[in-house]
Specification:
It holds the Pfam family Acetyltransf_3. There is one protein chain. This protein is α+β, with helices and mostly antiparallel strands and 364 residues long. Helices cover 29% and strands 31% of the residues. Helix 5 crosses helix 7 and helix 8 (290-303) packs across helix 9.
Length: 364
């Protein structure tokens, strides 16, 4: 199927994709000023709206639509065809229109145009690692995440790693997995929140110790700032992939990080929701009952029904080495029951220990 000679008008009743108009220049210039790193000025905006979009379409180099929302310019979305009969999607949204699902609607419209009108076989997406708004749109519109490619693109004169994804004509245009948005949970003493980038030193101190080296020998020792930054990125990736929640257990008064609590082993497509907890503490915070209190708070949220703001879970597990008395004591103080021991199933730095399993049911 050929690419149309002129822009069609595409709409879902809320968002409209259309050809550019002279009155879009101000909106394009405003959007460019929101990202000064790109180095575009108002004259660039005028040339792009008046000439550039139409000329790129005529050459079949880039099929660009203006995104109209609430009767005004809100951004643009485009398909860039390649020689293999596929295309790459590009998009950008003005700040005033963000947070309302506008770009997800626009991308669904252009996917329909690309597959059903232009006949593209596959539509590709990639973005610099760390561009979470762009990834969120790709997730919301059904793209399948692919490999993260090191040094794939150049931005600001330096090579950057890129996320990649793709979608086919018969794929559903909705999320394939949940995206776990971290809830902030509180107790009188604690605030459970995400870790911040400025807490790398706190993380490295907590993760570099003899007990960690012994019970979790797969964790690098010493745990460097580079290890901590990689770990933070990995936790964000796993939340975006619907695989785990990860909380910084912080002091409610000072907001200082005291430890970490992870909820993993989640299978959101399974009707019965079971998951596992893992945890570690900063040496300064040990012996105060902090982690057992944090676990009880997470369990309360986890077992609460979806419509009550919880996760709707059924069972939580804690598994650790039989000789890890501190971890076992924490589980027991949080109300978990010892339900089994697997002999010679937990690898330590020096030998293989028994693995003990604790659980907590929604009915407990």
């Amino acid at each position: 199927m050929p690419i149309p000679a002129e822009h069609p008008v595409l709409t879902d009743g809320v968002v409209t994709l259309r050809a550019p108009r002279p009155d879009d220049v101000a909106g394009q210039a405003e959007r460019q000023r929101e990202d000064p790193r790109r180095g575009f000025d108002d004259e660039d905006a005028r040339r792009w709206i008046i000439f550039g979009i139409t000329e790129a379409w005529a050459r079949r180099e880039r099929l660009v639509f203006v995104v109209e929302y609430q009767g005004r310019y809100a951004g643009s979305v485009a398909l860039e065809p390649n020689a293999d009969g596929n295309a790459r999607v590009h998009y950008g949204l003005s700040a005033w229109a963000r947070g309302a699902g506008v770009m997800s609607r626009a991308v669904r419209l252009i996917l329909g145009f690309g597959f059903e009108t232009c006949g593209f076989h596959v539509i590709l997406w990639w973005a610099r690692v760390g561009n979470w708004p762009s990834r969120r749109v790709a997730w919301a519109t059904g793209f399948r995440m692919g490999e993260t490619i090191p040094d794939m693109a150049e931005e600001g004169g330096e090579r950057v790693d890129a996320w990649t994804a793709w979608i086919g004509p018969n794929d559903p245009r909705k999320p394939r997995r949940p995206w776990f948005d971290q809830p902030v949970l509180e107790t009188p003493r604690l605030r459970l929140r995400t870790w911040r980038e400025d807490e790398v030193a706190r993380i490295t101190t907590a993760r570099t110790n003899q007990a960690t080296a012994h019970f979790l020998p797969f964790i690098p020792q010493p745990f460097t700032a580079e290890d901590a930054r990689f770990w933070l990125k990995d936790m964000a990736e796993q939340a975006a992939s619907g695989r785990r929640f990860n909380w910084c257990v912080a002091d409610a008064g000072t907001d200082q990080g005291l430890g970490n609590l992870t909820l993993f082993g989640i299978h959101p497509d399974v009707e019965v929701r079971d998951a596992e907890l893992g945890y570690w503490m900063h040496p300064e915070a040990q012996g105060r009952g902090v982690m057992s209190e944090a676990i009880r708070r997470v369990a309360e949220w986890y077992f609460a029904a979806d419509d009550a703001g919880g996760f709707g879970g059924r069972r939580l597990y804690i598994r650790t080495a039989a000789s890890n008395t501190a971890a076992r004591r924490t589980a027991e103080k949080a109300g978990f029951r010892h339900v089994g021991t697997d002999r010679a199933a937990f690898r330590l730095a020096t030998h293989v220990d028994d693995k003990v399993t604790y659980d907590l049911l929604v009915t407990d």
